[in-house]
Design goal:
60 residues; mainly beta; three-stranded antiparallel beta sheet; two-stranded antiparallel ribbon; 5 strands
Length: 60
């Protein structure tokens, strides 16, 4: 996710249930501007390097 000062934070990884539904639950103290999903080899990366799959922007 991108937070209000332009920093990218990793807030977790999606869990996959029977390849039809993915779930991400997270709580953050940051003012979130965008959330994006990337395909990564590892789930604990500090900065995304994989292919971007989805992105959404929040207008607060």
């Amino acid at each position: 996710m991108f937070i209000d000062n332009g920093i990218t934070k990793n807030v977790g990884q999606l869990t996959n249930k029977n390849a039809k539904k993915a779930v991400l639950k997270t709580v953050t103290p940051f003012n979130v501007k965008e959330i994006f999903i990337t395909a990564e080899e590892q789930g604990d990366l500090a900065y995304p390097a994989g292919v971007e799959i989805s992105r959404t922007t929040f207008n607060k």
